[in-house]
# Entry
Amino acid sequence: MNSRSKGCRAERQFRDELRAAGYTSARRGQQFAGSPDSPDVVCPELDGFHFEVKHTERGNPFEFLAQAVRDAGASKIPTVAMRRNLHPFIIVLRAEDFFAMLRNCDLDALRAKP
# Structure
């Protein structure tokens, strides 16, 4: 399988994960926007995020995040969703964005989830 089709498959998988989490309007981004700085996945309900999606056995998450930072612009949170074969997606973002999200969420509600 070539890397392009592997990347497209990962984008569809992450889109489906977002939809399963209730973000039903999530869709792949490149095929609609077409520019190099458009996100891999677009989700209007999570409009403040710029999603880059990676499916790789090796790779540097710092490089992936740097790409997301370059492409996100000043108004979006650069976010990398990445996975390896036989593993779930993980999310990579800057600590400053993580802490800002923590300040704005209900931690008790997060702890209550099974």
In short: The chain has one domain: 3-112.
